[in-house]
Amino acid sequence: MNPIQSQESAQAQWRKEMHSLPPWLKSSIGKASEISTVQKIIKQRNIHTICEEGRCPNRGECYANKTATFLLMGKICTRACAFCQVDKGYSPTSLDLEEPQKVAEAVNLLGLNYVVLTSVARDDLKDGGAGWFVKVIETIRQGNSNIQIEVLTPDFWSGKEAARAQRERVATVAATQPACYNHNLETVKRLQAPVRRGAKYDRSLNVLRLVKEYDCTIPTKSGLMLGLGETEAEIIETLEDLRAINCDRITIGQYMRPSLAHLPVQKYWTPEEFTRIGEIATSLGFSHVRSAPLVRSSYHAGE
After folding, report:
1. What distance in Å separates the CA atoms of residue 206 and residue 208, rounded to the nearest whole number?
2. What are 84-94's pLDDT values in tens digits?
3. At what angle do helices 201-214 and 232-244 cross, to 10 degrees?
């Protein structure tokens, strides 16, 4: 089979996989006008949102509800997670010194009430990008002191004395008093290695633990994807581990393969199963639970 035939075969296989999705995963992405307005504003400023880079199925709904998730520090990640659509590479671009102001301008133009700031992993930076989170937060607040800002950070584990560095970097971001501090476990402990290359289960739990040690009043949140081969017992164990470190909020959604180059879906969990798992999470003491197939880590974050 020549390269063109191989590509056509892959495209045909991908179309077949998309058409075979369960009906509960085939939803509208929202009004085209709302999506195009946001796209125009972010493209004019050469900034990024995970909503677009990750092609989130809820982006139209979030834009309509005046929320968005900005992707800081470029769009090339130094980690190579097997589920993620964000570009990977070991030579990310240098930081755009105008990014904090560009993001602040976009926030004002879009009239956002609640902003989520996330980033690619930048293991190449001396502080892992913690200081950059602070710069963007401070710049946004200069234009709107009342805006609510949630952070979704990487694990900040890199460099010499990585454990000490992680503690300092988490404290740096937590000192800005975000409306919520989010860090996603993504999957159960057994599946961390194949799913989250370069990350570890205990390191991620430690991020949320450190936030509470720094300031117990800051709400913490994590997110899980289902469909990678986990069992219900493993999901419950993960939820229990999160509650053991006083994680307050949880989002649980269905993993959907971005392309044939990513990990295949092992199971499509039903809406009823998501509801049951959500009820278990609530019974364990999470204050906010979002559990449904199309839920993502920033889904209804403003609520």
Report:
1. 5
2. 666 666 666 78
3. 30
pLDDT at 10 over 60: no
Per-residue pLDDT tens for 71-116? Answer: 898 877 666 665 566 666 666 678 999 999 999 998 998 888 889 9
Q: What 3 state SS string does 9-55 have?
A: HHHHHHHHHHHCCCHHHCCCCCCHHHHHHHHHHHHHCCCEEHHHHCC
Q: What is the token pair recorded at 239? A: 């939820």
Please answer whether residues 262 and 83 qualify as being in contact, where contact means their C-beta atoms are separated by less than 8 angstroms. yes
From the list 179, 133, 126, 178, the residue with the least C-alpha distance to 154 is: 133
State the amino acid at position 36 in one-letter form: S
CA 43 – CA 39 distance, rounded (Å): 6
- Length in residues, the chain: 303
The residues near 81 (Cβ < 8 Å, ≥ 6 apart) are 186, 195, 196, 197, 198, 199
Cβ atoms 233, 192 nearer than 8 A: no
Task: List Cβ neighbours of 3 (8 Å cut-off, separation of 6 or more).
Answer: none
Contact 256, 296 (CB under 8 A): no
Dist. CA 115–CA 193, nearest whole Å? 31
Alpha-carbon distance 197 to 29, whole Å? 30
